[in-house]
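REQUEST ID: PR-0412
SUBMITTED BY: lab tech R.K.
PRIORITY: routine
TASK: structure prediction, single protein chain
INPUT:
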Amino acid sequence: MLSYRHSFHAGNPADVLKHLVLAQVLSYQTIKDKPLDYIDTHSGAGFFELDAADAQKTQEYKEGIEKLWHHNSEQSALNEYIELIKSFNDNRELAFYPGSPKIAEHFLRRQDKGWFFELHPRDLTLLEQNMQGKRSIRVRGENGFAGLVGLLPPASRRACVLIDPPYEIKDDYETVVNTIVKAYQRFATGTYMIWYPVVDRERIDAMEQGLVASGIRNIQLFELATTADTEVHGMTASGMIVINPPWKLKQAMDDVLPELVSILSDNSGFYRSEQLVAE
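STATUS: complete
OUTPUT:
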């Protein structure tokens, strides 16, 4: 099933949370001069024009990045994210939104490698176009779950991984946990980030329980809900689960999430910032 395209959802509140966490992690990971491997299992097209038909059909960016565009926060992590997105917009007006591949490319240095997986034929072509020009970047039209495991352990002995499936297939929730367990067995010191949507809370509970029961240590969870959980179809929240997070990440998210809830959520919105498993 390859119907999902992120172009309809670029810049929405889920992207804000996902890319804020991603930027914080990569900023920390690239402080050291040592090479880093970045692996993105479900990359999408990588870059989005917000005036295009897909984005205009849903206009989800108006509930996310647009609300933050002129916001000046007291929290450096949020301001850094906003300035990062502005750097992709030459005239400082909101016209484009970078996906995770372009955000990663922003941080990756000459000594680093980027691995980007995408199966959707159209998005794969766009991803190849958007990521061309750097020898250190590889785009692969392959299954990202299998591709991740096959790349571990990396030659650099340092890895940062984003697992971001569309969850079109209900088994994806279980597949994410199984893939993380396999990856962790091969390379326990990597930083792994899992994005998830809250459409059915029971599926998220099961995924959390699976990770907790896996024996993996040092797991944190950050969630932003724009409205209360509901039985009605549709995403009400999204989250990022981070294994082996940078030591400053939890404090940064503790500071930022209340502000994001106040800006992006209705009166029933909430956030979670939890240490699921201790170090």
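NOTES: Residues 119 and 143 are 7 Å apart (CA to CA).
REVIEWED BY: pending
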